[in-house]
Specification:
The complex is a heterodimer of chains A (305) and B (335). Chain A contains 17 helices and no strands. With 305 residues, chain A is mostly helical. Chain A has two domains: 53 residues; 230 residues, MetI-like (MetI-like fold). In chain A, helix 5 packs across helix 9. Chain B has 335 residues and is mainly alpha-helical. Chain B is 70% helix and 0% strand. The N terminus of chain B is likely disordered. Classes of the chains: A mainly alpha (305), B mainly alpha (335).
């Protein structure tokens, strides 16, 4: 900060600028390290020898090497099940949510849709005001979804914010003339949407899929209030119970085999690190993959005109 | 976001001009060349495309709003939502008079304000710094690193916090011990709760929030910088007087949104960081709604709904007020 104000008072251009640049490098470097360090630490701990983790020796790089925590996660019926559940829920929401959002967003972007403004308003108002936790819970309960996979899929299947962003994307990128010429050639609205609009909208399609996938994979709270059957738990909820609530029951995790139970007991601490890494992999993998589209799609839909 | 809402207005006006100025007026409907019903029938395929999201909207957004009426009733599971007896504002009165009201409101607002004051300027500074850095490849790598944590789940972030701040084997505890300090009880000491909540949030989201600003900065014409350079302006001056003003409109909008959401503090994360020892500062309105409405063995649906409704209404009023203020002063409100 001191360096900054000094450079401000000096007009001697190059030297002051150089000094500011160095300050920026140091500050940005420190920030990057502080962002990276926790991630590296958790990764290292999950791969170190069990004894090094329990005694707290690991601080940056792995000490020894062992993947037994990962094997334990995949061998634990309950944890493995929760990973499969999360993949299933995310896949379903990606499919249902992306389709509903693209189709609905496109319909609302059409200037010739009767009632378009009223319908758009009906969607947008829910971003400002909602029923809240308890009334939503009662709806899910009254629909008979409690403790079913649908309670993990349907309530979060459509994001109004994403729908509005997609609508803005369509109304800015699909010219009306294109529709007119397609109509001239006898295309119906369905044909136009599926054959013309969708192929032109890959960025926003990718953004929707990424956001639905990541949001669903990351969610734990719906599971907490809607599910009682542990067989249906998503990974995040199973993790929350182990990491945060510290309710770790080796017998439940490992199944009935007594040697497995003893093993599980020994690596309980390390297992937490492995779980964190496993839960972080899909979002971290998805992000560079769709990053290009993401920034592009988001910008077109939101800030850029 | 602005553009999104502006577009709405823009297209709406072209729309009505196009259609003879009657988007919603029912009186002039008969004067139209093509009657509404016929136009609706012609667009049936568009309605089919809209149907999935519309069904979702009715089921999971409007039915809960209808269910809000239990905030004014004494909900009884046997009688159901409609037949339960009305009690007027009794649930609200009970909340305002309870001893929890003051602390809950204070915890919610102070946590949110702290988050806003610390969390709002940092992405701006980060974006300005990234933009000013001469080594563009370093700027890109810093961006790539700092926005990676954004997509991590709250459970993962809180998990990492707990492992690092663990009172026995956590690295922070060990490092402080090696330096001869006694590490505080980060996770259970109420004094630490707000700092941990806010700064872990900045750790996670600052890099990503900077993207918006960086996009705005990339549209600053380079001629401005060149001209200023010729006039002898230093890099710092140029950042302050060219770059900063160019991101102000976006900053104002993001500020309005954050103030409007001030009562919706990241409740899922608060719930995870909460434990019986820090409850005095970590119990916020939303976690309290969860506690009395769903977690408790005798759930009080009506009472919890009333508390939630109180929060939504105050939040909405705040949003409208800030937006009004922004429109008056800078003409850059949301709607």
């Amino acid at each position: 900060m001191a360096a900054k104000s000094r450079t401000a008072n000096r007009i001697t251009e190059t030297r002051g600028d150089k000094r500011l640049n160095i300050t920026l490098l140091v500050v940005l470097g420190a920030f990057s390290v502080s962002v990276l360090y926790p991630l590296i630490y958790v990764m290292s701990a999950s791969l170190s020898e069990t004894s090094a983790v329990t005694s707290g020796e690991v601080w940056l790089f792995p000490i020894g090497f062992s993947t037994n925590a990962y094997t334990a996660v995949f061998e634990s019926p309950l944890l493995f099940r929760s990973i499969l559940n999360s993949l299933f829920y995310a896949g379903m929401v990606i499919a249902i949510g992306t389709f509903a959002t693209m189709a609905g967003g496109y319909a609302l972007s059409r200037r010739d849709l009767p009632g378009r403004n009223l319908l758009t308003f009906a969607f947008m108002i829910t971003m400002l005001f909602s029923g809240g936790m308890i009334p939503t819970y009662l709806v899910v309960r009254d629909l008979g979804l409690l403790n079913t996979v649908w309670s993990m899929i349907l309530p979060g299947a459509v994001s109004v914010w994403q729908l509005i962003i997609s609508r803005a994307f369509f109304s800015q990128t699909i010219p009306h003339e294109l529709l007119e010429s397609a109509k001239m050639d006898g295309a119906s609205d369905f044909t136009f949407f599926f054959k013309v609009v969708l192929p032109l909208s890959v960025p926003v399609l990718a953004v929707n899929m990424l956001l639905y996938g990541v949001t669903t994979w990351n969610a734990y709270f719906n599971g907490l209030i809607y599910l009682t059957d542990e067989e249906l738990y998503p990974l995040q909820l199973a993790m929350r119970n182990i990491l945060v609530q510290n309710t770790f029951d080796p017998a439940k995790m490992a199944g009935v085999d007594p040697t497995k139970i003893a093993e599980m007991q020994a690596i309980a601490g390390k297992l937490k690190y492995a779980l964190i890494v496993i839960a972080s992999i899909p979002p971290l993998l998805a992000y560079p993959f769709v990053q290009k589209h993401f920034v592009k799609g988001m910008m077109i839909g939101s800030v850029k005109g | 976001m602005t553009q999104m809402l502006n577009t709405n207005d823009g297209t709406a006006s072209t729309d009505s001009a196009h259609k003879g100025g009657a988007a919603s007026g029912s009186t002039i409907r008969s004067n139209r060349p093509v009657p509404l019903l016929k136009r609706m029938a012609r667009s049936w395929q568009l309605y089919v495309l809209l149907l999935p999201s519309l069904i979702w909207l009715v089921l999971f957004a409007y039915l809960p709003m209808y269910g809000l009426q239990i905030a004014f009733k004494e909900f009884n599971p046997i009688q159901g939502i409609i037949d339960s007896p009305w009690v007027g504002l009794a649930q609200f009165a009970r909340f305002f008079e309870s001893n929890n009201f003051g602390p809950l409101l204070w915890n919610t607002i102070s946590l949110a304000l702290y988050e806003l004051i610390a969390g709002f300027p940092i992405p701006i500074v980060l974006a300005l710094a990234l933009n000013a850095l001469r080594q563009k490849y370093l700027s890109r790598s810093v961006q790539l690193i700092t926005y990676a944590p954004n997509f991590l789940s709250v459970v993962v972030v809180v998990g990492i916090i707990m492992m690092i701040l663990d009172p026995q084997i956590g690295v922070v505890h060990q490092a402080l011990g090696a330096l001869g300090f006694e590490a505080p009880q980060f996770l259970t000491d109420p004094g630490w709760f707000r700092h941990i909540y806010v700064w872990s949030g900045i750790w996670q989201t600052a890099g990503f929030s900077a993207i918006m600003y960086l996009a705005a900065l990339s549209s600053v014409p380079p001629e401005l910088h060149e001209a200023a350079k010729v006039d002898g302006a230093s890099l710092f001056r140029r950042t302050l007087h060219i770059d900063l003003p160019s991101i102000m409109p976006i900053a104002v909008i993001l500020l309005i949104l954050s103030v409007g959401n001030i009562l919706n503090t990241g409740f899922e994360k608060v719930l995870l960081l909460q434990n019986p020892l820090n409850l005095t500062v970590s119990q916020v309105i939303d976690t309290y709604v969860y506690e009395v409405g769903l977690k408790s063995p005798i759930p009080q649906f009506s009472y919890a709904t009333a508390i939630g409704l109180f929060k939504s209404v105050v939040g909405l009023i705040l949003l409208l007020a800030v937006n009004f203020f922004a429109n008056k002063t800078t003409k850059s409100g949301l709607f």
